From TrEMBL:
Domain HTH iclR-type: 12-75
Ranges for domain IclR-ED: 76-263
UniProt protein name: HTH-type transcriptional repressor AllR
SUPFAM superfamilies given in the database record: GAF domain-like, Winged helix' DNA-binding domain
Domain of life of the organism encoding this protein: Bacteria
Annotated Gene3D superfamilies: 3.30.450.40, Winged helix-like DNA-binding domain superfamily/Winged helix DNA-binding domain
Length: 277
């Protein structure tokens, strides 16, 4: 092995170990780790850890606390995170998933989030046929009479959902099937929370049905719903066996989206991050 090749492997190994340290510190439950704790977490010799920690501290990716006995993430990572945030394109990350869903179902697909008490349509993908539900990226809708809205409310603690509905009262009656009583709506939201899908059966518009399921980050708390996707179309095409097929397609797509690290990061870092959630 040549000297140059051996040096390259050494530096690659050192870089890998340095990144491992940062990952361990970023995931620290207490917010900081001692040298002994890092040794247990990484399996690296303490002498190696000390050398790498000195470099990381010099570059401000790590800082010491408790008189130099504990280590935590430093502010040097902020610039990297901000650079990543500026480059995140949620539409680019989500479009392939919604387009495939539309191709499979021939219905309108929608990615939505809860933002300041209303549903924000982040991304819409429509089928090519003339008879279809129409929506537009960036538009808003009510939470009480839409599949997306009810599903997203079900992802909140019950009191938080009730507070949003109370602030929106009196709830607009758009059709004869719109639920306008907050108490009745909260019972519906509890059922949605249990079954993990929502149905808007002509509650928002006559002749239109919407099915919605949550997007949950892979491996995360099952009750934490970061966003929702839905399918909307003529009600006659979304009942019985057709409904089962559409819900299965939605569930598969939501699971695939939850496994996309890029999309999950885009949703977490979006301007809606943390609002109403």
């Amino acid at each position: 092995m040549g000297t140059e090749e051996g040096g390259s492997q050494y530096h690659s190994r050192a870089l890998d170990r340095g990144l491992l340290i940062l990952v361990c510190l970023a995931g620290s439950v207490s917010g900081s780790e001692s040298l002994a704790e890092l040794h247990a977490l990484t399996g690296l010799p303490k002498s190696t850890l000390l050398r790498l920690l000195v470099v990381l501290e010099r570059r401000e990716f790590v800082r010491t606390t408790n008189g130099g006995t504990r280590y935590r993430i430093g502010h040097g990572v902020v610039g990297l995170a901000e650079s990543y945030r500026r480059g995140v394109d949620i539409h680019e990350a989500a479009t392939p998933f919604l387009d495939r869903l539309v191709e499979e179902t021939d219905q309108t697909a929608n990615l939505g989030v809860l933002d300041n008490g209303s549903v924000l349509h982040v991304l819409v993908s429509e089928p090519k046929r003339s008879l279809r539900f129409r929506s537009t990226n960036g538009t808003r809708d009510a939470v009480h009479c839409t599949g997306l809205g009810k599903l997203l409310l079900a992802g909140l603690p019950a009191e938080a959902a009730r507070e949003i509905l109370a602030e929106a009262a009196p709830l607009e009656r758009r059709t004869g099937k719109t639920i306008t009583d907050v108490g009745v709506l909260m019972e519906e939201i509890a059922r949605i929370r249990a079954r993990k899908f929502a149905v808007d059966s002509e509650e928002g518009a006559r002749g239109v049905c919407c099915l919605a399921v949550p997007i949950r980050q892979s491996g995360a708390d099952d009750t934490r719903w970061i966003a929702s996707i839905s399918l909307s179309g003529p009600i006659g095409e979304m009942t019985g066996e057709s409904r089962d097929h559409l819900l299965n397609a939605l569930g598969r797509t939501a699971a695939q989206m939850g496994e996309s690290a890029e999309l999950m990061a885009a949703l977490e870092l979006s301007q809606w991050g943390g609002r109403d959630r």
